[in-house]
Amino acid sequence: MIHITSLDEGLELFKALGSDVRIQILNILLENGHMSMNQLATQLNLSNGALTGHIKKLEECGLISTSNESASHGNSKICSVIQDKIVLEIEKPVDLSNVFATSIKVGQFSSFNVCPTCGLADSSSVIGEIDDARYFSHPDRFNADIIWFTKGYVEYTLPNLVPSNNEITQISISFEISSEAPGVDENWPSDISFYLNDKKLGMWTSPGDFGGDILGMFTPDWWPQNWNQYGLLKLLVVNRHGTFIDGLKISDLTISDLALDSSTPINFRIAVDDDAEHVGGVTLFGKSFGNYGQDIKVSLSYMPKN
């Protein structure tokens, strides 16, 4: 997989793909697995010299590889596609002059109370035993890149390194999340609530638990196909106008109601409450699972106190 995080970073790749001939080469190789230069030149009705330039561009940007193999009349150069995904992320540049930004792993929760089905895993294996909530206190949980539970909560202490004598004017938290069904079920609603310092920010209903035939872009190969594969990327924002999920207001609670400054501890809780209408669980995806390749991203906007 090729992961591009800015347009400038992907410029050479875009140039390589901006050719009908090179797109044809990739399609032919994808259909046939691998082919020699002579076979490609014949099928495309190109000279070996013209083909060499196209192959070089595709190889330089990491889309294909070439190797020499012995043939009856000397060596033959074999071409193969070596990437199966291209992920492009485009984000508007953020003015960081008055913003403290950081990220925390999904396993770095400071407290929890969860009910099975539940579990944790890092990029290489499950941590402990499935459906045994005791492993949420195992030291290896800090390495977890996916966690899931049916009911209860996990709470994170958000780093607050805002400069002294400043007040926080906005909190933004971004995370990949879904429900937690037995196996996978895209129609498995879950009412997921969010709290900051024990004040309820609001609730969002996850539509389901996604996977099955569609695998997560970053989910490792060892992960069972019939388990949670990916979630939805959500952006939770609290500012002076209220609390929002992806720009849609979910409550009237404002940043002023929280009275946060540079000395305030900030505890963020993700919960499926006992009295929720839809108790459908939570799955949180970290950098090596799901479709977005990120941990929980946090940004605190601030300004000097009056």
Total helix count?
5
Q: Percentage of helical residues?
A: 10-25%
Q: Which stretches are poorly predicted, pLDDT < 50 over at least 5 residues?
A: none
Mean pLDDT: 92
The ordered string of helix (H) and strand (E) elements is EHHEHHEEEEEEEEEEEEHEEE
Describe this structure in words.
With 306 residues, the chain is mostly beta strands. The protein is built from five helices and 17 strands. It has helices spanning 11-17, 20-32, 37-44, 48-60, 255-258, and strands at residues 2-4, 34-36, 64-71, 74-81, 86-88, 99-104, 111-121, 146-158, 166-178, 190-196, 199-206, 232-239, 242-245, 248-251, 266-272, 282-285, 296-304. Strands 6, 7, 8, 9, 10, 11, 12, 13, 14, 15, 16 and 17 form a twelve-stranded antiparallel beta sheet that branches. A three-stranded antiparallel beta sheet has the order 2-4-3. A two-stranded parallel sheet has the order 1-5. The longest helix is centred in the N-terminal third of the chain and has 13 residues, at 20-32. The radius of gyration is 24 Å and the shape is elongated. The N and C termini lie far apart (49 Å).
